[in-house]
Structure formats: C-alpha cells, structure tokens
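Hi there,

I know you've been waiting on this one. I reran it after we fixed the sequence typo, so this is the corrected version. Both the input and the resulting structure follow.
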Amino acid sequence: MRISDARRADLKAHDAMARKSAKRKAFPHGTDDEPIRSGDPVAMQRIVTRIEELALSIDRMKAANAIIRRMEKDLSSEEDMIAAVVAHTGLSADAAARGIKLAPWQSRRGFTTTNSRAELRRLQQRLAAIARMKERGTQTEKVETSAGAVEIKENADIARIQLIFPGKPDDPTRRVLKANGFRWSPSQGAWQRHLNESGRYAAQRVLKMISGASAA
C-alpha cells in the first residue's frame, strides 16, 4: 500500500508539472488572470489598462457613496438605494448591494476605496519603474572575477539582470548564485533574476563574494 500511495503521488506530481510546463509554453508571459510580468512585451499597456479600470472603479464607488449618504438622510429603503446606485454609477445590482446592505459587524453603509487607492498607487509606481527600465535599455559590462570574465547584462527586453560566465561555474559559485536569487536559464545561457534595484544589488554581492572585490 505504501508503494502504491507513493506511485500515485508521483503521478499526481508529474501531472502538475506537465500542466505547469504546458501553460508556461502556451503563455510565456502569463495569463490575463495572473500578475503582470515586467518581461511581457505589452506589460506597460496592460498596466495602463488596469490603472484605467481601477480609477473608473474608484470613481464609481465614490459616486455610489454620495448617493447612499444623500438617500440615507431621506430615510430611503435599501432597495431604492440599490436601484439608484445601479442607475447612476453603472455598478451591477450585486455590487451595489454589497456596499449598501449592512452586515452584522458593520455600522455604516458604503464602499471603502482604501485598498483600491493603494493598488492604484502601486500600479502607477510600477508603470514608472518599467518606463525607466525601457528608457535605460539593455546594458552590458564585463568584470574579472576568480571565475573568469563575467558579463553583467541588464536585459531590458525580458526585465532580467543576467550573469553570463565563460564556462560552467563551480559548485561554490553556483551555491552563491542560488543563495542570492539567481536561477539558471538554458534558453538565455545565463544566471538571472528580476531586473530591479534588489537584483542589481544581488549581482554586485555575488561578484564580490566570488572575486573578493566589489565590481565597478
């Protein structure tokens, strides 16, 4: 029974890995319901679309709150409030009801925009960061280390910072790379991680650790 259970677990793990691999092949930049990846060629356009959708949602919630406050003063029923919000904001009846019908733990009707505004700011900051990365473009530099001349490449096209070694790094070097978040990419022929300030700092730390001196 133990052997049978182990084989079933192996089959389940193989199925999960196969599905993940097929999905990665079919959607190399992720699907629409997944986080937007900086390496996606249309990442900026997708972020702009989400910003516009989120801004519209916030405006609708603000308009709904104004309607709710006014109708509360008039002692209107929840059904009338829902109908008014739907008619004037474009929210669905279900969405309007979620902001109007009081739950047992709530003391006030209305929509909260705190999380939405925080997400809007995050998206705007990320859009600006990607724009700066695209403007900077792909840059390369070679640094002499104990492992030979290592090329540091800021690959703006796929949003990765890459370390390209003249040959296969030895075991200690590979351990340092993995400990600093770098993973081997056969398709790129490079050890890489996301291109951002943390990635740049990690690259310099790796080079310092394998050469005993900081890279310029």
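Quick highlight: The first strand starts at residue 139 and ends at 145.

Best,
R. S.
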